[in-house]
From TrEMBL:
Pfam families documented for this protein: DUF2460
Domain DUF2460: 10-200
Classification lineage: Bacteria, Pseudomonadati, Pseudomonadota, Alphaproteobacteria, Hyphomicrobiales
InterPro entries reported for this sequence: DUF2460
Protein name (record): TIGR02217 family protein
Organism per entry: Rhodoblastus acidophilus (Rhodopseudomonas acidophila)
Length: 200
């Protein structure tokens, strides 16, 4: 099943919030000592967008004709919180020659990920893959399986660096079952605080 992609519209506001979130269970003893247990292996991301102007009449070509209907229809097709979609973050959607693992001579399936600073995490959903290399040699002897794994026909040898070039998106759902669109001028609408979060 192909997931729908969140639409890119010219009326989007500049302010975008991207919030990585962990979940940790903290138990505090009367002595003040703590026991902390991580509930997430990796962060989940939450996004918040606003659209300062959306066209409903078709008269504002610079805003994409009927962009209100595009965004509202997309939200409604997701059923609010019900269904998932892909969000392509324009600032975080591709890697080149990213090292994803080291072969051990037995493992054939690997999860694709990306490094951000000194932190490495699996990507949510691979949208396209253009190059896979084992020890610097390009190969096509693999299959890509949604959302984010590749399986080699033969296990890469022990010590072999596995790298890939690919694009990715975040698999998300909306956080609310209500979306408030405001008509502020004839044929012009806006919405603020449109929130959604990554799901696994």
């Amino acid at each position: 099943m192909t997931l729908p992609i969140f639409p890119t519209l010219p009326g989007q506001g500049w302010g975008v919030k991207k919030t990585p979130t962990f979940s940790t269970r903290v138990s505090t003893h009367v002595s003040g000592r703590e026991v902390r247990v991580p509930l997430y292996a990796h962060a989940l991301y939450q996004f918040e967008l606003s659209f300062d102007a959306l066209d409903s009449s078709g008269a504002n070509a610079a805003l994409q004709s009927q962009s209100l209907q595009t965004l509202m229809g997309f939200w409604m097709s997701c059923g609010g919180q019900l269904n998932t979609f892909l969000y392509v973050d324009p600032t975080d959607n591709a890697v080149t020659a990213q090292t994803i693992a080291t072969g051990d001579g037995a493992t054939t399936t690997f999860t694709l990920g990306r490094a951000i600073g000194g932190y490495y995490e699996p990507v949510s959903y691979v949208t396209a893959i253009s190059n896979v290399s084992v020890s610097g040699v390009a190969t096509t002897a693999y299959t890509l399986t949604a959302p984010n794994t590749i399986t080699f026909a033969m296990a890469p040898p022990g010590g072999a660096a596995i790298s890939a070039t690919f694009t990715y998106a975040y698999q998300c759902r909306f956080l609310d079952d209500v979306a408030e669109f405001e008509n502020f001028l004839s044929g012009l609408w806006k919405i603020g605080g449109l929130k959604f979060r990554q799901v696994r």
